[in-house]
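Q: I'm writing up a methods section and want to include an example of the input and output format. Could you take the sequence below and give the corresponding predicted structure tokens, formatted cleanly so I can copy it straight into the document?
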Amino acid sequence: VEVPRVKSLSREEFLRDYYLPGRAVIMTEAPAFAEWPAMTHWRDPAYLRRKVGDTEVYVRLNAHTKDYRVGSRYAIEKVPFSKYLDTLEAGGFEASRRYLAVQNPRGPLATDLT
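A: Here is the clean output for your methods example:
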């Protein structure tokens, strides 16, 4: 899957065209988002644990394999977000083989996008 690259988007364009439909996008310059709470809050693992630590999320497994990269095969598990975050923070092989799948765009972190 090719992810579109754009220079920048307005908040409204980002929410309407990418965030709410759950589509990926890479913004190469995003000054409009610099003031959003997500830009600082989402870098803080303690904040994420407080907001969504107990929320169950879908995590794709075997993200390190060629089969995963071409979209032909992967497993998925449902775990509390805090467990996924623990794995990422520990690093190593277990972290490299996991990828957070698309989540509810209107979930508890949505207020950080305003």
